[in-house]
């Protein structure tokens, strides 16, 4: 195996998807499995399809192109770029929109392609990322409904990704009220109300989740087994679908505080150190070009992550019971950001088991 390596357990990903898709389906909610965290690798997309996902959702056109031949409806999660309107219509069945100008470009592309493209109007219910403000949503929906070869599938909202606003009965009901006002004014029926991402899963089966909310976009919960509202493990789901493995290239005993005047490091930060005396330190051949040091956790819990530069990560192995040697491989669990970074890095081998 070439290191560093991202080792991915396909069976565990499929099982996570099976378990949570059933929970959602039992509550009348369809599941859009978010594939962007693993860069749309086709074999992993297929695992989530086999696990019962109803949609595959990704933020990148390049990732959607990788899964072109997999038979499942596909969603472009990120707001489309007008410059990519042709590719959006070609590679996705549904895209999330908030701008009339973008919808017009999608309409033109859909007419040229001789197909109907579905869109979901994003409504900002308080998190202040994408979406029209609720008091404008009905008027914007009217303009979308007038466009050729565009079908308004429904409305959606995003929460916790920017402002950290938690899903609640109040903001879910606001989203539903927008959908119902659109239906009342224009005499249409909206098929979908998408109530957010993995931060919304705690509302499933509660009175705070309106019955009209019938789709969620799930990434973190299915891939690493966490809900994102409070950052807690989802009972019954695997948290070790992804493992990062990195090789030790140096082991030295050194002071825990650098010697000399402290300035800025390679990333412009002024580091702060705790004096713990002489410590046994290992360097592994991976760095910030490949991963996020705040989203990587040694499986050997006695090992501490001290920090990293572009290409090296420094570990304190003093308290570990293992007799680590040069050339040994240390394994790490990953948070969502860690999986995303390692998946994206061309310098990290991807190994599906």
Automatic annotation (TrEMBL):
GO terms for molecular function: alanine racemase activity; pyridoxal phosphate binding. Residues 8-224 form the Alanine racemase N-terminal domain. InterPro entries: Ala_racemase, Ala_racemase_N, PLP-binding_barrel. This is Predicted amino acid racemase. GO terms for cellular component: cytosol. The keyword Isomerase applies. Transmembrane segments: none annotated. Keywords: Isomerase, Pyridoxal phosphate. The keyword Isomerase applies. Pfam families: Ala_racemase_N. CDD domains: PLPDE_III_AR_like_1. Its cofactor is pyridoxal 5'-phosphate.
């Amino acid at each position: 195996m070439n290191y560093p390596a991202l080792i991915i357990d396909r069976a565990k990903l499929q099982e996570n998807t099976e378990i949570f898709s059933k929970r959602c389906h039992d509550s009348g909610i369809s599941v859009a499995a978010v594939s962007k965290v693993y860069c749309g690798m086709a074999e992993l997309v297929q695992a989530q399809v086999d696990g019962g996902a109803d949609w595959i959702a990704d933020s990148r056109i390049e990732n959607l192109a990788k899964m072109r031949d997999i038979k499942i409806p596909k969603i472009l999660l990120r707001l489309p770029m007008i410059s990519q309107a042709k590719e959006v219509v070609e590679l996705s069945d549904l895209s999330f929109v908030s701008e009339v100008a973008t919808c017009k470009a999608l309409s033109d592309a859909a007419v040229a392609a001789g197909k109907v493209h579905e869109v979901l109007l994003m409504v900002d219910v308080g998190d202040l990322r994408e979406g029209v403000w609720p008091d404008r949503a009905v008027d914007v929906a009217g303009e979308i409904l007038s466009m050729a070869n565009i079908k308004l599938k429904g409305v959606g909202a995003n929460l916790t990704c920017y402002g950290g606003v938690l899903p609640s009965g109040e903001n879910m009901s606001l989203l539903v009220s927008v959908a119902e006002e659109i239906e009342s004014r224009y005499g249409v029926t909206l098929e979908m109300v998408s109530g957010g991402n993995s931060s919304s899963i705690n509302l499933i089966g509660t009175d705070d989740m309106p019955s009209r909310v019938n789709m969620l976009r799930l990434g973190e919960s299915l891939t690493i087994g966490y809900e994102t509202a409070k950052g807690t493990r989802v009972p019954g789901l695997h948290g070790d679908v992804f493992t990062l493995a990195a090789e030790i290239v140096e082991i030295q005993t050194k002071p825990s505080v650098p010697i000399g005047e402290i300035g800025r490091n390679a990333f412009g930060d002024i580091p702060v150190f705790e004096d713990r005396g002489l410590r046994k330190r290992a360097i592994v051949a991976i760095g910030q070009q490949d991963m996020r040091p705040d989203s990587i956790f040694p499986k050997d819990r006695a090992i501490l992550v001290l920090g990293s530069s572009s290409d090296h990560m420094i570990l304190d192995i003093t308290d570990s019971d293992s007799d680590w040697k040069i050339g040994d491989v240390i394994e790490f669990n990953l948070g969502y950001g860690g999986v995303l970074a390692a998946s994206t890095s061309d310098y990290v081998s991807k190994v599906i088991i």
